[in-house]
Amino acid sequence: MANTQTSLYVRTGLALVFMAFLLFVPAGTLAYWQAWVYWLLFGGIAAASIGYFSKRDPALLERRSSMREKEASQKCIMAAFIAAYYGLHAFAGLDRRFGWSTVPTWLVLVADLFFLLSFVLIFFVLRANSFASSTITVEKDQPVITTGPYALVRHPMYAASLPMLIFLPLALGTAWGLFFSALMIGLLVPRLLYEERFLRKNLPGYEAYCRQTRFRLLPGLW
């Protein structure tokens, strides 16, 4: 477990270095306060989450550390999603340099709050489901989780990610970056539908859970 924890800290550190490069080099300046706030929030939340779950649920960290999808279509979707996510960082830096759009300070701060909200919701999803792997898979003796956020929607991890995906461009000070938000959300929909078909087929009890919990992503809507 110590190796997994160390590996996750190292990966997080490398991700932060990469994010900083993508944000500040295109921006041509370190005087980009929106990026600093986001960068510090991301690093602090990631480090705190690794520390918490390494003590409370190390098996979850093991599952979350694997990024290897088995299905070719899902590999493509995740590759496109990651490219869009990091592409947004570079685009935001360019927007900061050339002034393509302006986001008022109050809206940046509101977006930061929604970014935090997203991570709080993700935390509760992970705490409710120790089998919340980062890849689409089913383990031996895996139960169907029906309580907590799973009582509201069938895919609460995706639902919890929505505030982050929608408000991240605004937190970085780019309104045009919302096109990246639309792209990332658009990529999550086919992934969600594939995951649901996979779980219906491979996870005993999931079909009954689908009948019990009507909505996939947004309570009352879908």
From TrEMBL:
The keyword Ribonucleoprotein does not apply. One of its GO terms (cellular component) is endomembrane system. Its main location: membrane. Pfam families: PEMT. It is a multi-pass membrane protein. The chain crosses the membrane at residues 12-30, 36-55, 76-94, 106-126, 164-189. It is found in: Endomembrane system. Keywords: Membrane, Transmembrane, Transmembrane helix. InterPro entries: Metal_cation-efflux_comp (IPR052527), Phopholipid_MeTrfase (IPR007318). The keyword DNA damage does not apply. This is Isoprenylcysteine carboxyl methyltransferase (ICMT) family protein. It comes from Desulfovibrio sp. U5L.
